[in-house]
Specification:
3-stranded antiparallel sheet; 23 strands; Rossmann fold; 8-stranded antiparallel sheet; D-amino Acid Aminotransferase, Chain A, domain 1; Dna Ligase, domain 1; binds ligand MV4; alpha+beta
């Protein structure tokens, strides 16, 4: 839906591909044409590149936007698209391939002066040698899988004595997850912030950055809240990180939209980690603060057009926050919750954007990612964006499935989030299921009171009186009643 909307504004006709589970999906109805590419499991549909190429042939489609998941970072698919005479709206397969491996990514940027966490430059082949290197770096160290993603194959080693055992575990995890047992080590940055820079490169050698996104609020490597700009960066650090990101992109002649991922330590020193060679889920916050449409930019780049702006033309305007709304139960260890959207009403009004693909009455399928929507708010500053997010969460009306909306409100109201003093440990450090239970109980109490009042209305004695009201926070206001 997100991608087709931009295509439509550009006068481009679209073809949706869908699995049997998605027959009734909104994107199927929105597209000019739609082609079924197989059964529900993604390895029998959305992950089959050949089926997507076939869908292009039968509809005479000219280009493919690979989205944010599935085949979007798959160099073999990118090559297949090219070999079929089609255009992939994304980078060249070579850039995808290099950045798809953390070690080759680090090697590619080595000749540029990019700060990196001290560690081994090649895959570990000799345990004894690696242990010596770990002792040089100093514990704790982090073992990472070169082919890794989503935190898989990562192991922290606190003591030298655990090194061999943790290495073996990391290698076997990497083999089973990626079919590639290459691992390397780095100094472990214990409480980092995750900050990433959006870049755009055209096919004429122009590369710009679109500032940063702060993505530190995550749970088990699944991002929950993203914002732009980061509340912690100074103008100087922002400029230096942006410049580094442009150089990282330049090291692989990057074309299209991409994201350069950094961690920031407690001294605000930053280190390059990896590059994501796709448009990311959290791109809307960058769109809000720059005024650009990143999908349109991707399409223009794929057509061979030069960027229509230079770095000096870009600036940060206001503040945007995105909450990922997952069909998960925060009270039950974020277990995915499937079912029917019995009620589904989205928030509206000034500064609110909802990117979703569901309507009231639809089923949430079990087959795919549990993220059902993204709620994005924009404000003149961070305080306004937060207040607007809380207002929008309160307006969002979803029944039939459990969601992470209440969890999002918990984060927005937390002192550490409000003050900007948080890192990647925010959720583990501050969130307990009890943090939400009290709010739920309060809502239940309000509902019970409302029922009593309504029941007693005919006797005309019911009175509701709020004491000490807090504007926009009515659920927290104490209610006195007599009936
Ligand atoms: C790190 C790190 C600390 N030190 N590298 C996690 C996923 C992958 N993209 C890189 N990750 C990390 N690499 C060093 N040397 C901590 C993390 C990390 C993390 C990074 C970004 C966002 C969330 C995270 C959660 C846990 C660990």
């Amino acid at each position: 839906m997100r991608i087709m909307r931009s295509a439509r504004e550009m006068g481009i006709r679209t073809v949706a591909v869908y699995s049997e589970a998605d027959r009734a999906a909104l994107h199927v109805r929105y597209a000019d044409e739609a082609v079924c590419i197989g059964p529900a499991p993604s390895n029998q549909s959305y992950l089959l590149g050949e089926r997507i190429i076939d869908a292009c042939k039968v509809t005479a489609a000219e280009a493919i936007h690979p989205g944010y998941g599935f085949l979007s970072e798959n160099p073999a698919f990118a090559r297949l698209v090219k070999a079929s005479g089609l255009i992939l709206i994304g980078p060249e397969p070579e850039a995808m391939e290099i950045m798809g491996n953390k070690l080759s990514a680090k090697a590619a940027v080595m000749k540029y002066n990019i700060p990196m966490v001290p560690g081994t430059e090649e895959a570990i082949t000799d345990l004894a040698e690696a242990k010596l290197r770990a002792e040089e770096i100093g514990f704790p160290i982090l073992i990472k899988a070169a082919a890794g993603g989503g935190g898989k194959g990562m192991r922290i080693v606190t003591h030298s004595a655990d090194f061999e055992q943790q290495m073996q575990l990391a290698v076997s995890e990497a083999i089973s997850a990626f079919g590639d047992g290459s691992v390397f080590i780095e100094r472990y940055v214990s409480s980092p912030r995750h900050i990433e820079i959006q870049i755009l490169g055209d096919t004429h050698g122009n590369i710009v950055h679109l500032f940063e996104r702060e993505c530190s609020v995550q749970r088990r490597h699944q991002k929950v809240i993203e914002e732009a700009p980061s509340s912690i960066l100074t103008e100087e650090t922002r400029r230096r990180m942006g410049q580094c990101a442009v150089e990282v992109a330049r090291s692989v002649n990057y074309t299209g939209a991409g994201t350069v991922e950094f961690i920031l330590d407690e001294h605000l020193d930053f280190f390059f980690l990896e590059m994501n060679t796709r448009l990311q889920v959290e791109h809307p916050v960058t769109e809000m603060i720059t005024g650009l449409d990143l999908v349109k930019e991707q399409i223009r780049i794929a057509r061979g057009e030069p960027l229509s702006f230079r770095q000096e033309d870009l600036s940060v305007n206001g503040h945007a926050i995105e909450l990922r709304v997952y069909a998960e139960d925060p009270l039950n260890n974020f277990l995915p919750d499937i079912g029917t959207l019995q009620t589904y009403n989205i928030p509206k009004g000034n500064g609110v954007r909802v990117d979703d693909g569901f309507e009231q009455g639809m089923e949430i399928p079990i087959y795919y990612d549990p993220m059902i929507a993204k709620l994005i708010t924009y404000g003149k500053d961070r305080t306004e964006a937060i207040a607007r997010m809380i207002r929008a969460i309160d307006e969002y009306d979803i029944t039939g499935i459990k969601t992470t909306l209440g969890f999002g409100k918990f984060v927005m109201q937390h002192e550490a989030f409000k003050s900007g003093a948080f890192d990647t440990h925010f959720v583990n450090k501050y969130f307990k299921a009890d943090s939400l239970r009290s709010e739920n109980e309060e809502e239940a109490l309000v509902a019970a009171i409302a029922a009593v009042i309504s029941f007693n209305k005919q006797s005309a004695t019911a009175q509701v009186q709020q004491t000490d009201p807090v504007p926009g926070n009515w659920k927290k206001n104490r209610i006195k009643f007599n009936s």
